[in-house]
Write a structure and sequence with these properties.
heterodimer, A: mainly beta, Porin, 4 helices, 17 strands, B: alpha/beta, six-stranded mixed beta sheet, about 20% strand
């Protein structure tokens, strides 16, 4: 909570110098969007919802307020309400930042800022910005979105136009660092919570990263790489240990070794056609340490990849297809060690404000999408998931 | 019957002339913008939110009309999008924290007034709006 207040304070302090100006001079803007989704799945319940009976438990509403007291400085704040099954039902802050852009070559943001890693991390929570109802879950799991989206810290960014060598295209860079909080209901942590390990304050991690986007001389082709270094992940934990005829509460700590997370991606956009691909690997050693002998580290090693294509059939109608795969190296054989997802998507824009989406997923494996608690009879290996969504933005 | 056909002919002639006149647009900028010409790629980058300055280093503040044939013609010619897609793309920049929507105006006169009073402002109007007559405004040639 104190970080949230700090971010808002920093942003307000930056805005303070602008208070003497009129609203017109401040260029105040107010935008927002809201979506309502409906989920239906054939076998397993997805995203901690009762989707096999049909579930409307997927609602989002976002408000954005920004002001620009001088051309180079923009101050903005974006709160969000999100309901998604048992994962979330409340308010969060997407970002609250001051953005000073000296020129196209150099700018800096600070406060609570979005993390510009990968191909879609910054836009993954902006539903009006793409045709998909769900981005590929292997890399952008919606149940862990809040733990990936933004951090308390800063970002430097810019575009180096290689004008002396126009055949080389343009190079965009971003570098960032800060602290991120993962709530105990985050998708990565929920399985441990369900197994009796409480994380009353969630986990806190500090990270730094950098990304390069090369806009190649081939018009529409961007090739990029990002690398994140996670320094520490810590958090208090507690559980109940058997003792005699009863149980006693025991406190401990979650510990993870520092690790790197590389991400490689490319996107090609030409007219109404778009194709994109991304690959990332998350390899981390972690343990739950309780009083007593040192616990051994467990190893998680997930490799995730997707390929997608979309086509704008008309001004109002677009369709797309993607394949997304996540594979846990070293996992026991069986569907729990992987997730393969084919998705067919369509979007119709009624006007510039109102749109509707439909999406069908063919999911093989149980490595993503599911929470054990809502599938008490065990998970089946395959599931079909139908998503309908309407959205409005202004 | 003849009169009906003639009326229809005149109507379509009128529509065709209107469209042709609407597409006869000019790029205008505040006099603080150093350059006298701009290329189409720069215009696309500025009006897509990818750049905030022109090649000569001048700060650029994109300014648009809210609707109408001049607006549609500009977007189609220089940005490569229709108005809904143009606004949706800008809203994505807003929601990701990377930009603010360009100021937009109901009339060409309002746009010209803003451009003449705002350092770095750049916009477009129909040639008939006679932008050169406004103090503080220059017309940019498009390379």
């Amino acid at each position: 909570m104190y970080r949230l207040l700090l971010a808002v304070f920093l942003v307000c302090a930056t805005a303070g110098s602008a208070c003497a100006q009129s609203l017109e001079d401040l260029n105040v803007q107010f935008h927002g969007f809201a979506t309502q989704g409906f989920l239906y799945s054939t076998n397993n319940n997805v995203f901690a919802t009762n989707s096999s009976n049909g579930s409307p438990d997927w609602t989002e509403a976002v408000i954005n307020l920004s002001l620009q007291p001088i051309p180079n400085l923009r101050i903005s704040i974006q709160p969000r309400y999100e309901l998604l099954g048992n994962y979330s039902n409340g308010f969060s802050l997407d970002y609250a930042q001051a953005d000073y852009k000296a020129n196209d070559r150099f700018g800096v943001r600070f406060g609570k800022v979005k993390i510009p890693t990968g191909l879609y991390n910054e836009i993954q929570d902006v539903d009006p910005g793409y045709i998909w109802s769900l981005l590929p879950q292997s890399i952008y799991p919606i149940t862990s979105r809040n733990g990936q989206l933004s951090q308390y810290g800063g970002v430097v960014y810019g575009t180096l136009s290689l004008e002396d060598h126009p055949k080389l295209g343009k190079l965009e860079y971003r570098a960032w660092g800060g602290e991120i909080g993962l709530s105990s209901s985050d998708g990565y942590l929920l399985p441990y919570v369900e197994n009796g390990i409480n994380l009353p304050n969630g986990l806190t991690r500090t990270e730094a990263g950098a990304a390069l986007h090369w806009r190649t001389p081939l018009h529409g082709l961007m090739i990029g790489v990002s690398e994140v270094k996670n320094f520490t992940i810590t958090g208090a934990i507690s559980t109940l240990f058997p003792s005699g005829s009863g149980v006693v509460p025991v406190n401990g700590e979650f510990v993870a070794q520092p690790y790197f997370q590389p991400d490689y991606f490319a996107q090609f956009v030409r007219g109404k056609f778009m194709i994109a691909t991304e690959y990332t690997r998350l390899a981390v050693q972690y343990k739950f340490q309780f009083p007593g002998p040192a616990a051994p580290y467990a190893q998680a090693d997930e490799r995730s990849v997707f390929g997608m294509a979309s086509y704008k059939i008309s001004e109002k109608f677009a369709a797309g297809l993607y394949y997304s795969q996540q594979f846990s190296r070293g996992a026991a054989p069986g569907p729990a060690g992987y997730s393969k997802d084919w998705a067919l998507a369509a979007r119709y824009d009624f006007n510039q404000y109102l749109y509707a989406k439909a999406e069908e997923h063919f999911i093989d494996g149980t490595g993503e999408f599911y929470e054990d608690g809502l599938n008490p009879n065990g998970l089946k290996g395959t599931t079909r998931l139908t998503i309908l969504k309407v959205g409005v933005s202004f | 019957m003849k009169r009906a056909i003639l009326s229809l002919l005149f109507f379509w002639l009128f529509v065709a002339c209107s469209v042709a006149r609407a597409q006869d647009l000019v790029i205008v900028a505040n006099k603080s913008v150093k350059t006298a010409e701009v290329n189409a790629e720069d215009l696309k980058d500025v009006f897509s939110g990818e750049k905030t300055s022109l090649k000569d280093g001048s700060h650029a503040v994109p300014t648009t009309l809210k609707s109408g044939p001049v607006h549609e013609a500009f977007l189609k010619k220089y940005v490569g999008k229709g108005d809904p897609a143009f606004r949706a793309a800008w809203r994505s920049l807003v929601f990701t924290g990377q930009g603010s929507m360009p100021k937009s105006f109901d009339t060409e006169a309002d746009l010209l007034e803003f451009v003449s009073a705002t350092a770095g402002a750049i916009g477009y109007v129909s040639a008939g709006a006679n932008p050169a007559a406004h103090e503080g405004i220059k017309v940019l040639a498009v390379k």
